[in-house]
Structures are given as structure tokens and as C-alpha cells.
């Protein structure tokens, strides 16, 4: 994505939809790709794979712990298993299995969690995954990815299938504005600078990438030059891009649909602290469980909008100036 | 393919069992910690698989694609598996006494980073059956004759994940998976019946859709026959409920909850080795 492109942010498919389509593409070219689901295939969209390749789709019932470890067994015998559920069930109910059967022996398991964040809306906090990145990043050897649109998700799924090692991919329920053009590459450990800027850097992943773009455009109108960086690879992190942002802009805002505790923000802060200390602000779910409501109502109430990112950016710029 | 075949008589296998038991008590004594009771109870069940020709494996080709898999769900019984792997030629016998020490391949619980012949890293109870199901499914997809065996502790099957996996295996008709319950009736805190009763255990597995074989887990002929019977069962998974004695072979360890996780003293080792001579 060339810096300086004007973003139309037309609404695209949900990233879960893109995931469902991408694993069918993979299944067609690689018979070792198999899928496990825990009675949510119509929501995680693994139903497409189930219809196309019923002999390679394993219904696990509502039993995520078993599903994850079955996936690890399949992987240990040479398969490329995608195990999928809502992020909150996959990470919370399957965490011990992700740890002992996948991370510790470094097994080639691909875990994909959909319905991440609070934008799932009406179902409420029991279904909302706001701590999945903290948990997934606490697994040594895991790669953790949070693509922001259908283009990114498709590319990421192909990337993780080719990668040897355990992976967690975070997908959303709601439709996502299209940020990328087909053909953009998403290597594990990479990032994309979407808008150039020199006063502050807005770092985001997932749904908040589009919000960060809108925030940058709003800030530009006020004379603030805000770089936008999509850190879709939560782990490993593109340390060089973060360090460059810290050095060149001196102020960073990290925005994410995840708890601030244990999210991308703290990972970025570690790199900043270790390399180029600078002013930082954090936009995320702040030590609270959300509630039922429409996705837009919730993103408004819990301060996960462009306006919140822009406000944090202005605060960061002011703090930088006061140094 | 050169595999370890079942040419040994039950009597010869009993001699192997005795040697395995000597290794178990000696290495746990050397380590000054470990789990003798549940290692000693599982000896015949493992010796039949690895030395009695019941499991297809090849020490010259440990990553043979069509090998049968063995997963020690009850990972704390690592000493019995280490002794078996060493006697079978996968790992050095002369390092068994480094068990649990820094730098040893014989880690406290099975760790495949240190021993590539291990099919899984275990130690957190409840996960072996799910792993075995995944491996058995992979074999089925590949048209491979490989089977997956997993040994479960009786206490271990108190874990909910075991029953998730039990449902899964029956629903998917995974007939190349065999679960072995080392039913020695003792867990860490005491007798199973006093911690969390499992009975009626055979009925539970039957209700979950499994073919159940109950047997004396120390009778070598019965153990061999049970594995042979499991081979013939089609369309459903098989569980061996092996009635065993915790600490089997060492009089003062038998049926003694203390020796779930305590190493023998110097005197106790001498006594144990005399009994196992």
C-alpha cells in the first residue's frame, strides 16, 4: 500500500468471512489442510470448508479443549489443522491445550478465533474476546496476527498455512472497511505504513486500523501530521517499524479493540522503552467488560473511535512539546 | 520394514518387565524424586506394546510415517516410558540415572524437545486421548495402518477433557485409537474411591460408545490378548481397563499411596532390587 493513497474505506466482508473463503482455497491445493470446529461453523464460516471437504472437516461439538488437542495431534502427524471457534472460547477454554499440546512442543497448529473484540455487539461480554492477544502472546513460539480487512485476512491465512509453527489469527464478526488492495503481502513479523506522518504515529490492528486512518485525516485538517501504522503482526512485532516511528515522530498512540492490559500497546511500549523512549498514549478497552448493544453504540461508548484516537494523538503531541 | 516383532514368549517378556522395574526404582532413587507407584503399575502394559510386537515401531526409523504412536497421558509415569524406550534402543540406557537432572534428556515429564522418539510432551493430565485421536485421524486420512495408543491414569480420567475426547472418538468412529486405563486405584491424595470415585467405570466407557476390555494388567498373556482383540474391533474405539497394582513388584510399595510420588531411600532401593532380582 503506497503511502499517500486516499482511503475510501468502502465496507467489505467481515474478516471471519474472508477466513472461511481462504481455507477453502487452501483446501483445494493442499490435501493436508484440515479443519476442526466446535459447533460454531456457521459463525466462524468454516462451514464453507465443511461443505467442500466433509472428509477433512471434524465436528468437535461444544468441546474446545478437546478440539485444540485433537488439532495438535493432527499437526504432529503432518496435517495443517485450522481449529476455529469464537476467540474467547478458543483462548480461554483451550488455553491449557494451546500451551501444552501446541506451544511447548512447537506443533504446527493454526488457531483462528472469530468474534473478537466488543464489536460483536448484542451477545454481550461472555462472548466478547478482549484478552485473547494477551493470552496468545504469552505462548512462546506462537505467531499472533490481527488482520484488518478481507484482503489482509485472505493473505494472512495463506501466509500462516505456509509458515511452520503454531499461530493464532484474530478475526472479527462485523464487516470491515477495505483498507488494502488485492496482492498486498502480509509477511509474519511485518507491518504496513498506510499514511506518512511526522508529528505522531497512530498504531492499530484489526477494526481500529480504519479508525486510525480516519483519525489521521481529521488531524491533518488541524495541521497535525499523523503517521498510520498497521501492526497486523502482533507477535513477532515489527520492532524496526516501531523504533522508526518513535525516532521520527517522537509520539505514539496505540489503538486496539482489546484490553489495554496485555494488548499490542504494551508490546509496542516495551520496544519503545528498549530502543527509543518517546511519549505514548493508549486507546483500548480500559479494565472493564462491555455490554450488549449495537457495534457502533459500543465502539462509541467504550471510546474506540477515530475521535478518541485523534484526542489521544493531540494529547501525545502536547506532551511531546512540553518535554 | 524391520519392526520389533512379537517373537518373545510371555516368559521372556516377564524378564523384560523385571529389568524395566529395576530401571524404574534405580533411576527414581538416583533422582531423589519421581513417581514409582504409577510407573511400576504400567510395566506389563508397555512391555507388551514395545517388546511383545503389539505396536508397530522401528528403532532404526523412529519417524517412520506408518508407525503406531504411543502417548503417555499420565506423564508423571515417565520413568516406565524412559526405561522402555532405553531398553528398546531409542535412548541411552546408561543415562537413565540422570533422570530429572539439569541437562538430562530424561526430563521430569516427557518432553519431545529432548527425546524425538516421544510423540508428545505430556504432564498436564487429560490431554493424551485428544492427541491420540488427532494422530489416529491423520492416519485414517492418509490411508495409513498406523494406530494410536494412549495410557491414561485412573485419576487422570477425572479430567473433563477425557470425556470430551471419548465422545469425539466414538462419534468419529476412530477405531485405530486404543486407550489404556492403568486402573491402580490410587492417586496422589489417596485411594481413588476416596478422592473422586470412577465406578461404574466400564459402564461409563460403554455408554460413551467404546468397546471395553477389562483385564488383569499384570498378566502378560491377558495384556497381549487384549491388544490383539482391540485390533479386530471396527467402527468404534477400544479402551483397556487394566486392573493393576500401584507399586507392583516391590512389596512395600504395592498399594501404598505414599509411593505415588516419593523416591525410595538407599535401604528401600536395596530391598526393592533384591525383590526384583
Note the main attributes of this structure.
heterodimer, A: 323 residues, alpha/beta, Rossmann fold, 2 domains, seven-stranded mixed β-sheet, five-stranded mixed β-sheet, globular, B: 277 residues, five-stranded parallel β-sheet, two-stranded antiparallel ribbon, 10 helices, 7 strands, disordered N terminus
Structural summary, described in words:
The complex is a heterodimer of chains A (323) and B (277). By secondary structure, chain A is of the alpha/beta class. Chain A folds into two domains: 12-177, Thiamin diphosphate (ThDP)-binding fold, Pyr/PP domains (Rossmann fold), CATH 3.40.50.970; 192-322, Rossmann fold. Chain A has helices at residues 15-29, 41-44, 47-52, 64-76, 87-93, 95-103, 132-137, 150-162, 208-221, 239-249, 264-275, 295-301, 306-322, and strands at residues 11-14, 33-37, 57-59, 80-86, 110-114, 143-145, 167-170, 175-177, 192-195, 200-204, 226-230, 233-235, 251-259, 279-285. Chain B has a single domain (10-275), classed as 3-Layer(aba) Sandwich (Rossmann fold). In chain B, 39% of the residues lie in helices and 12% in strands. In chain B, strand 6 (211-216), helix 9 and strand 7 (238-243) form a beta-alpha-beta unit. Chains A and B meet through helix 4 and helix 6 of A and helix 5 and helix 6 of B.
Q: Quick one: how many beta strands of chain B? A: 7
What is the assigned CATH homologous superfamily of chain B? Thiamin diphosphate (ThDP)-binding fold, Pyr/PP domains
Q: What is the average of the pLDDT values of chain A?
A: 97
- The CATH architecture of the largest domain in chain A comes to 3-Layer(aba) Sandwich
Amino acid at each position: 500500500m503506497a503511502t499517500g493513497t486516499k482511503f475510501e474505506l468502502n465496507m467489505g466482508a467481515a474478516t471471519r468471512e474472508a477466513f472461511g473463503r481462504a481455507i477453502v482455497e487452501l483446501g483445494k491445493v493442499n490435501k493436508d489442510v484440515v479443519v476442526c470446529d466446535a459447533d460454531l461453523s456457521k459463525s466462524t464460516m468454516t462451514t464453507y470448508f465443511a461443505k467442500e471437504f466433509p472428509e477433512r472437516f471434524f465436528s468437535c461439538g461444544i468441546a474446545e479443549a478437546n478440539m485444540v488437542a485433537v488439532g495438535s495431534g493432527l499437526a504432529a502427524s503432518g496435517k495443517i489443522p485450522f481449529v476455529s471457534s469464537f476467540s474467547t472460547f478458543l483462548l480461554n477454554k483451550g488455553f491449557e491445550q494451546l500451551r501444552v499440546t501446541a506451544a511447548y512442543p512447537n506443533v504446527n497448529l493454526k488457531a483462528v478465533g472469530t468474534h473478537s473484540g466488543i464489536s460483536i455487539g448484542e451477545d454481550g461480554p461472555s462472548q466478547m474476546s478482549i484478552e485473547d492477544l494477551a493470552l496468545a502472546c504469552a505462548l512462546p513460539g506462537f505467531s499472533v496476527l490481527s488482520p484488518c480487512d478481507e484482503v489482509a485476512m485472505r493473505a494472512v491465512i495463506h501466509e500462516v498455512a505456509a509458515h511452520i509453527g503454531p499461530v493464532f489469527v484474530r478475526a472479527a464478526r462485523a464487516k470491515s472497511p477495505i483498507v488494502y488492495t488485492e496482492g498486498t503481502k502480509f509477511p509474519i513479523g511485518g507491518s504496513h505504513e498506510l499514511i506518512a506522518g511526522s508529528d505522531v504515529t497512530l498504531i492499530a490492528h484489526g477494526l481500529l486500523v480504519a479508525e486510525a486512518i480516519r483519525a489521521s485525516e481529521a488531524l491533518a485538517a488541524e495541521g497535525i501530521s499523523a503517521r498510520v501504522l498497521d501492526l497486523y503482526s502482533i507477535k513477532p512485532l515489527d520492532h524496526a517499524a516501531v523504533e522508526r516511528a518513535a525516532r521520527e515522530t517522537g509520539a505514539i498512540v496505540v489503538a486496539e479493540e482489546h484490553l489495554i492490559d496485555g494488548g499490542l500497546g504494551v508490546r509496542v511500549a516495551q520496544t519503545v522503552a528498549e530502543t527509543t523512549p518517546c511519549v505514548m498514549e493508549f486507546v483500548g478497552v480500559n479494565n472493564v467488560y462491555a455490554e450488549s448493544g449495537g457495534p457502533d453504540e459500543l465502539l462509541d461508548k467504550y471510546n474506540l473511535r477515530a475521535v478518541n484516537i485523534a484526542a489521544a494523538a493531540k494529547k501525545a503531541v502536547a506532551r511531546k512539546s512540553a518535554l | 520394514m524391520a519392526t520389533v516383532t512379537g517373537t518373545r514368549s510371555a516368559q521372556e517378556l516377564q524378564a523384560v518387565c523385571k529389568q524395566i522395574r529395576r530401571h524404574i526404582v534405580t533411576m527414581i532413587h538416583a533422582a531423589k524424586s519421581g513417581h514409582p507407584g504409577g510407573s511400576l503399575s504400567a510395566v506389563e502394559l508397555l512391555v507388551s506394546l514395545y517388546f511383545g510386537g503389539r505396536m508397530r515401531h522401528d528403532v532404526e526409523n523412529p519417524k517412520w510415517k506408518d508407525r503406531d504412536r504411543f502417548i503417555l497421558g499420565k506423564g508423571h509415569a515417565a520413568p516406565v516410558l524412559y526405561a522402555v524406550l532405553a531398553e528398546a534402543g531409542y535412548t541411552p540406557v546408561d543415562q537413565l540415572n540422570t533422570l530429572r537432572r539439569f541437562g538430562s534428556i530424561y526430563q521430569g515429564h516427557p518432553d519431545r524437545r529432548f527425546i524425538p522418539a516421544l510423540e508428545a510432551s505430556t504432564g498436564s493430565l487429560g490431554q493424551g486421548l485428544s492427541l491420540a485421536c488427532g494422530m489416529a485421524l491423520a492416519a485414517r486420512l492418509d490411508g495409513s495402518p498406523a494406530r494410536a495408543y494412549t495410557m491414561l491414569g485412573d485419576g487422570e480420567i477425572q479430567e473433563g477433557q477425557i470425556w470430551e475426547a471419548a465422545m469425539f472418538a466414538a462419534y468419529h468412529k476412530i477405531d485405530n485409537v486404543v486407550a489404556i486405563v492403568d486402573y491402580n486405584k490410587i492417586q496422589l491424595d489417596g485411594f481413588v474411591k476416596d478422592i473422586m470415585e470412577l465406578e461404574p467405570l466400564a459402564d461409563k466407557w460403554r455408554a460413551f460408545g467404546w468397546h471395553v476390555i477389562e483385564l488383569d494388567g499384570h498378566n502378560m498373556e491377558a495384556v497381549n490378548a487384549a491388544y490383539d482383540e482391540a485390533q479386530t474391533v471396527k467402527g468404534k474405539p477400544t479402551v483397556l481397563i487394566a486392573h493393576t497394582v500401584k507399586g507392583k513388584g516391590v512389596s512395600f510399595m504395592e498399594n501404598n499411596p505414599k509411593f505415588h510420588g516419593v523416591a525410595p531411600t538407599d535401604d528401600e532401593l536395596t530391598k526393592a532390587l533384591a525383590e526384583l532380582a
